Write the structure tokens for this entry.
Amino acid sequence: MKDTKVVIIIPTYNESLAIEETLRQVFQSTECIQNKDVHILIFDSASTDNTQKIVLDLQSTYSKLHLKTEPKKSGLGSAYLQAMRYALNDLAADIVIEFDADLSHQPKYIAPMLEKMDNHDVVLGSRYVRGGGIPDDWGWHRKLLSVLGNYIARFVLTPKYKDFTTGFRATRREALLHALPEHFLSNQFAYKLELLWLLHKNKSKICEYPIVFVDRKSGQSKLPTNSIVDALRVIFTLRFKKIIPYFRMCLVGLSGAVIQCLLYNVLRHKLPPVSANQLAVFGAIINNFTLNNQFTFRKNSLTLSYKAVKSLAFFIGYSILMIGCQSYWLHLGIKYFGSGRLKENIILVTGIILGSVLNYIIYSNFIWRKNKPIVLSVGSDL
């Protein structure tokens, strides 16, 4: 049986003081891991010291050490994106691990995290679960970015994970192929937030493994001064992108509500309340279907196909059910509160509000459901 190929990505920029010891410890800690073919990919962002020369010299000692470079420093997020594509496409990695060059991530955690990968798509090296920790002597800037950034991410995005900003993560090939964007929102440290969110949204099986983060012993911290602002920008951008379809649905729903009310009041002159509402609901549903197909869910809009016919049949059945529900709602309202134009319209509006919530759930999850793409590889034109 072929061993699982693991590629540990270590981005570097002027890490000549630390890189040799980091490589020695990582290779030493992984050489006895069974059924795993462990490689290290150094991605160097145009270091101006001897980092690249040291790595090149060490390749004669470590046969599974790879070096990839970029001509100009583009930021941590960009470096990881390029390195991940190279690991997936050129090195055929089955598992990709993100790892710091300064040994702030302790190599002793690699083996137990890989064990967790047997039952998960993603394993996070987490500082904020029981057993994990951060340095007591960290500066206020680092603590503020890490602790506050994670609290905000959990509040705005999802409370499911404790450590959104960890840079120590193992990810399966398939999960990474489906999650990697063409470009990260941030070329800096905040890429970590976006990648975890994308993995989460793709329903990857994610767990957190406790790690104790230690501060670097040599070299200087690469944390940009604007990291807090950048992280907040990414967090709220991700949430805003998520709720854009909801706002579009609200606009469509509002237009449907206006049409339903207008039709009802026009038809009410010649028809009983229930009959007038049945036709008004049907008109509103046709309006909502047309606008949602072209506006709200335009990326998944229905075209002439077998899938479209199935969705249309489902929509017709759902529409008939909604007409019955809206009519019964109005019937109950008139029965308990009496008839009259004002009362009937209040009952009608409450039915519209409740119905619109149900419509969004049904539309987004069944009729215009997003299909999971089949990704064979990741390239520059992803």
Summary: The longest strand covers residues 36-45. The chain has two domains: 4-225, 243-367. The CA atoms of residues 109 and 185 lie 29 Å apart.
